[in-house]
């Protein structure tokens, strides 16, 4: 059905639409290094790494609004880039009975080889404000926070499986 609608666009509409889509960075396809962007949000950290010649080969972000903005702002070649929503689907950390070796193999199958790992994982379980709020609500914080605090360990699984040369973490 989408193909039928696509063909109903006029040449002017198609030209206009193409100007609105993200374009490859200036150094495409001659990249200096490859990186992955975990807990990417709208992609702020990606901009800096692309500016110095990097190629993003994998992105993970679960927030649907952030994903829409990210995809609107960045060129993601479907042949060279993979997009994932829940990183736990890649690391298998939410599944019981998965060995470390099985998880590592699954990670290697789904996350391409890369030089730099970028991870902007949530700070709420660790920040002063986040911990205060969670304490007031009687909720777990830090690594005991199962929804956000354990994502650090998913990053560790990826590092162990892929061994990037450089890490850049931010909260």
Structure description:
By secondary structure, the protein is an alpha/beta fold. It has a single domain (34-169), classed as Rossmann fold, CATH 3.40.50. It contains 8 helices and 5 strands; from the N terminus they run H-H-E-H-E-H-E-H-H-E-H-H-E. It has a 5-stranded parallel β-sheet, covered by helices on one side. The radius of gyration is 19 Å and the shape is globular. 24% of the residues are buried. Residues 1-6 have low confidence and may be disordered.
Can you give me a brief rundown of this structure?
The protein is α/β, with parallel strands linked by helices. It has helices spanning 2-7, 11-20, 44-51, 64-73, 88-91, 100-110, 128-136, 151-162, and strands at residues 33-38, 54-60, 82-84, 116-119, 166-169. The longest helix is centred in the C-terminal third of the chain and has 12 residues, at 151-162.
Give the secondary structure arrangement, pairings included.
Layout: H1 2-7, H2 11-20, E1 33-38, H3 44-51, E2 54-60, H4 64-73, E3 82-84, H5 88-91, H6 100-110, E4 116-119, H7 128-136, H8 151-162, E5 166-169
Parallel strand pairs: 1-2, 1-4, 2-3, 4-5
Helix pairs in contact: 6-8
Catalytic activity: a 2'-deoxycytidine in DNA + S-adenosyl-L-methionine = a 5-methyl-2'-deoxycytidine in DNA + S-adenosyl-L-homocysteine + H(+)
Protein name: DNA (cytosine-5-)-methyltransferase
Enzyme class: transferase
């Amino acid at each position: 059905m989408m193909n039928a609608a696509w063909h109903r666009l006029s040449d002017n509409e198609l030209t206009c639409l193409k100007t609105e889509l993200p374009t490859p960075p200036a150094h495409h396809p001659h990249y200096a290094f490859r990186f992955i962007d975990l807990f990417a949000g709208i992609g702020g950290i990606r901009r800096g790494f692309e500016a110095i010649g990097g190629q993003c080969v994998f992105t993970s972000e679960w927030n649907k609004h952030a994903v829409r903005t990210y995809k609107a702002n960045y060129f993601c070649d479907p042949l060279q880039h993979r997009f994932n929503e829940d990183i736990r689907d890649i690391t298998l950390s939410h599944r019981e009975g998965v060995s470390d070796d099985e998880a590592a193999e699954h990670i290697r199958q789904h996350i391409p080889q890369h030089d730099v790992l970028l991870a902007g994982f949530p700070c709420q379980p660790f920040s002063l404000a986040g911990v205060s709020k969670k304490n007031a609500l009687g909720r777990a914080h830090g690594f005991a926070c199962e929804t956000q605090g354990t994502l650090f360990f998913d990053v560790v699984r990826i590092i162990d499986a892929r061994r990037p040369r450089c890490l850049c973490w931010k909260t």
